[in-house]
Amino acid sequence: MKNIWVTASNEEEKPWGKETAWSTSGGGHISGKILYLKKDCRNSLKYSLIKEETLHIMSGELLLTFSDEKFKEHEMWKSRICKPGDTIHVQSGCPYRIKALEDSTIIEIGSRIHNTATVRFHDDYGRHSSTDEFKVYQQAELVEKSMMPDKDN
C-alpha cells in the first residue's frame, strides 16, 4: 500500500566541509544530501558501481573533472567550471570529482541502493579504495590542473 513517510536528516562533518543527508524509508529508493564544500577543497575522485546521482549547484563555483564509463580504455578526462543553476547528472560507472573554487552549496539527489559500492581512485584525506588506480588519478589530476585559474594574476 502506498503511504507517506517523514524522516529525519543527519548532519556530518567532512574533511572538505559538511553534508546534511536524508533518505526515504519504507520502499523508497531516493536519497538526498546538501553538500557544503569549503573553498579550495575537493571530494574524492570516484565512481559508483550502481548508484546514479544528480547534483544541482546552489551557490559558489566548482571545477568538475569527469569521464565516461569507458575511462579505463580511452583514458580521456574533461573539466569544466560549474556555477549556480548548473545541474550535473552522474551515471553509474562514470568517475568524477568536484573542487570548490569558492565556498559552495550543492544539492545531491541519488538512487538509494543499499550497500552501494563506491570506488575511490584518490582522496586528499586518505580515504582511497585502492592504490591500484593511481594512473587514473594522475590523468584526471593533469586535466584538473589545466583548468585552474592562474593564481599569479
CA radius of gyration is 16 Å
Q: What is the typical, i.e. mean, pLDDT?
A: 84
Quote the beta fraction.
Answer: 35-45%
Helix fraction by DSSP (H/I, runs of at least 4): 10-25%
For the termini, the CA-CA separation is 61 Å
Could you say which structural class the secondary elements and strand pairing correspond to? mainly beta
Based on CA inertia axes, which overall geometry fits?
A: globular
Secondary-structure element order, N to C: EEEEEEHEEEEEH
Low-confidence stretches: none
Please give the order of strands in the largest beta sheet.
Answer: 1-2-3-10-5-8
SS field, number of helical segments = 2
Show the helix and strand layout:
Blueprint: E1 10-14, E2 17-23, E3 30-37, E4 45-48, E5 53-59, E6 62-66, H1 71-74, E7 78-82, E8 87-90, E9 96-100, E10 104-111, E11 118-122, H2 134-147
Antiparallel strand pairs: 1-2, 2-3, 3-10, 4-11, 5-8, 5-10, 6-7, 6-9
Give a written overview of the molecule:
By secondary structure, the chain is mostly beta strands. Helix content is 12%, strand content 41%. It has two helices and eleven strands. Strands 1-2-3-10-5-8 form a six-stranded antiparallel beta sheet, with no helix packed on it. Strand 2 and strand 3 form a beta hairpin.
Question: Main traits of this protein?
Answer:
2 helices; mainly beta; 41% strand; 153 residues; three-stranded antiparallel sheet
